[in-house]
Amino acid sequence: MKRDSNQINSFFIEIIIVILFFSISAAVTLQLFVAANNRAQQSSDLSVAVIKAQDIAEQIKGISSLNELTEELKAAKYTSSGGTEHFLLDYDKQWNQTQSAPQYKIDIALTKDAVESGVLVHADILVSRCKSSGENQIFTLNTAKYLSKTP
Amino acid sequence: MNGKSTHSLDTIFVLLIFCLFTICSLFLVLIGANGYRGIVGQMDSNNETRASLSYVANKVHAADSGETAVQTINGQQALVINATYNGEAYHTYIYEYKGSLMELFTKAENPFTPGDGDKITTISGFAMAQNNHMLNLSATSKDKRTLTLNLFLS
Fold first, then answer.
1. In chain B, whose CA is at the least distance from the CA of A61?
2. How far apart are CA B98 and CA A90, in angstroms?
3. A129: closest CA among A147, A113, A148, A107?
4. Is the pLDDT at B89 greater than 80, yes or no?
């Protein structure tokens, strides 16, 4: 009887050790899963952000006069400070334009420099992800468009 | 009698712990598999949309702007890039055919046969439209995510 009890106790201790080992392994593995998921999310965000920024940059390259706004900019929130015009676009989780609770933001800062016989329009495009702790910058793209005064 | 009762209680306890261990292992594998599936899905979606749009954008930028046009040939919409090498005219056709983004580079005099092209990537949908100096490209992935890119043809 005593021998049986000892056997059970040793098996019990063995199981406890195995569970302890399993718990540590599970904790490490779960951390890796979470990190991999985050990395995949970041990769996906970057992919979309690059295309969105390139899209806006190409549209800015396509303007032929100062008053001509691109389709994307027409739908944006407009602010102006210190000679820089800001156009703010809000997107939801699926990258569709939204007016409330945005998950992603694109800030287009336009600065106009008068140069000889024309205007040089600088555009700084900043794509960021909205978080409860603030905004996380995903991608930035700078471009410039020269607009001649003579048509 | 008391000894027997303790013995069976110990056995049940050990079995319960073993069951818990098995369930936790199963959950861990399921979480891992789910995470892996999600990552692969996102990677596929990225490849289908971003890679195809970037590829076409680079092709258009590499060509002279006046040489790029969206055409419909025998009911197949294609982006046609014209080029001249050693005095001979060539066409590069980029189009969606049977769930793939295809590219066909051929002499201008040769007819356009969609099946002859090289497969660039699998894609669920690819649309093109030209509006004056803007070329509008849309790529749709398997998970129905659509990305749009406008290209300025100077």
1. B152
2. 35
3. A107
4. yes
- ipTM, interface predicted TM-score of the complex: 0.78
Asked if residues B68 and B152 have their Cβ atoms less than 8 Å apart, the reply is no
**Is position B1 within any domain?**
no
Domain assignment present for B21: no
Q: What is the pLDDT of residues A52-86, one digit of tens each?
A: 999 999 988 888 877 777 777 777 888 888 888 89
Residue at B135 is within a domain: yes
Kindly report the nearest CA distance between residue A69 and chain B, in angstroms.
14
Position B53 in a domain: yes
Q: How many CB pairs under 8 A join A and B?
A: 86
Nearest CA in chain A to B149: A55
User: In what order do the strands lie in the sheet containing B88-97?
Assistant: B68-73, B76-85, B88-97, B100-107, B118-122
C-alpha to C-alpha distance for B112 and B73, rounded to whole angstroms = 8
Tens of pLDDT, residues B106-116: 999 999 999 99
Rg of chain A in Å (alpha carbons): 28
Question: Cβ–Cβ of B14/A30 closer than 8 Å?
Answer: no
pTM for this model (two decimals): 0.81
- Residue A65 is predicted with a pLDDT of 78
Range of the domain at B143: 39-152
CB-closest option in B32, B45, B133 to A29: B32
Q: A56, A72 in Cβ contact below 8 A? A: yes
A140 CB within 8 Å of a chain B CB: no
pLDDT in tens, A6-15: 766 787 788 7
